[in-house]
Amino acid sequence: SMLAGMQVTSAPPLPAPVHAREVDPAPSSTATEAEDPQPVDPKLSSRHGPIRKLGDWGQYANPLAAAIVTFSEDDSEGLRQLARGCLITIAGTSVLKRLFNYTPLGERPSGGDGGFPSGHAAAAMCAPAFLHVRYGQARYTVPFAASGSFVAYSRVWALKHHWRDVLASTA
């Protein structure tokens, strides 16, 4: 028969699925450059954890706590000014994000766009700015500025922003 003289060989191995190649530290010698994704630099992937979560919540907590302080001062005009000031801050930050989105300033450390300026930091820092201008008391300004600064730090720690992004947002 014809098959008697033929040698049977096995097919070459199939490349591993993409998710398996990403976690496998040793690249396959049979895979080509086009098949293998570039290894992800751990410094350039965003970080998760309690610091990031606290920063995410802080962007809302700071203005809300400032509203509680203003309410406790029985200052309805101040409450309107706080709301107006924070809304203007958030709207202005959104416009700047759109303007800088496709420039080198808009690039996030972890990749992607929308990095400049930091909306989290801007939202968190509208509270201490308002409290300082409205009441001028360190008992309000200092703790709110500290928590707003933590929100800014958390965005840099999470690799969502560069320092320039959060500093521009706090100005």
Description:
This protein has 171 residues and is an all-alpha fold. It contains six helices and no strands.
Query: Overall mean pLDDT score?
Result: 77
Which structural category do the helix and sheet elements fall into?
Answer: mainly alpha
- How far apart are the first and last residues' alpha carbons, in Å? 86 Å
Number of strands: 0
Major beta-sheet overview:
none
Instruction: Name the poorly predicted regions.
Output: 16-42
User: What characteristic shape results from the CA principal axes?
Assistant: globular
How many alpha or pi helices? Answer: 6
Compressed to H and E, one letter per element, the order equals HHHHHH
Attribute tags:
0% strand; 6 helices; 58% helix; 171 residues; globular; single chain; mainly alpha
Question: Can you describe this structure in just a few lines?
Answer:
The protein is mainly α. The chain has helices at residues 18-23, 50-72, 76-100, 119-135, 138-157, 163-170.
Write the topology of this structure.
Elements: H1 18-23, H2 50-72, H3 76-100, H4 119-135, H5 138-157, H6 163-170
Helix pairs in contact: 2-3, 2-4, 2-5, 3-4, 4-5, 4-6, 5-6
